[in-house]
């Protein structure tokens, strides 16, 4: 849990630039940041299981999509949720990736490598819980571009153990999402992930 507190503090300090949707946009705004702050405050006293449960209850913040896209917001928000669930399952080793391009999967693998830096090399991921805050949104014809700050909580343990430990990190990226011929949203590209690795330079 010391790792979680350190990662939380570092992520919070970098969030300035960067429910499931709540009943109103006003309710959703700020809840994401507040939940991370509360998780940080309680991280030294909460158990690892409690940290994971708290992460699962955290709201994502799609307020910017609602404000910028209006009537198309619902479908796009649901697609972002679907994308995040698929990616987190893949990173945890239990997901199906056939619906996504090789370039998208390469970005998932890269984030999986990043995830390995916040846990012991000998341990395995038991669960990955993503929550996101959309920081920027624009719609150009059939293409939506989203700036995203993701808070990823990881439950991990030695392969032979059921005792799960918790850690978490912040991850910034952009999504280009396009309407296909049927009018469904599809990921075109995942961009701007290099910034997460600047500390390694």
Overview of this protein structure:
There is one protein chain. This protein is 39% helix and 28% strand. The two termini are 27 Å apart. It is built from 7 helices and 4 strands. Residues 8-27 have low confidence and may be disordered. It has one domain. With 201 residues, the protein is an alpha+beta fold. A hairpin with a 2-residue loop joins strand 1 (123-140) and strand 2 (143-158). It has a 4-stranded antiparallel beta sheet.
Please give the largest β-sheet: 4 strands, antiparallel
- Structural class by SSE content: alpha+beta
Termini Cα gap: 27 Å
Number of strands: 4
- Name the helicity range: 25-40%
Radius of gyration: 17 Å
**Morphology:** globular
Main sheet strand line-up:
1-2-3-4
Beta fraction: 25-35%
Average pLDDT score: 86
Number of helices: 7
Count of domains: 1
- Show unreliable segments: 8-27
From N to C, what is the helix and strand string?
HHHHHHHEEEE
Detail the topology: elements first, then pairings.
Elements: H1 2-13, H2 25-28, H3 31-42, H4 48-57, H5 63-69, H6 73-91, H7 102-116, E1 123-140, E2 143-158, E3 165-179, E4 185-191
Antiparallel strand pairs: 1-2, 2-3, 3-4
Helix pairs in contact: 1-3, 5-6
List the keywords:
about 200 residues; 4-stranded antiparallel sheet; alpha+beta; globular; 7 helices
Question: What does this entry show, briefly?
Answer:
Helix content is 39%, strand content 28%.
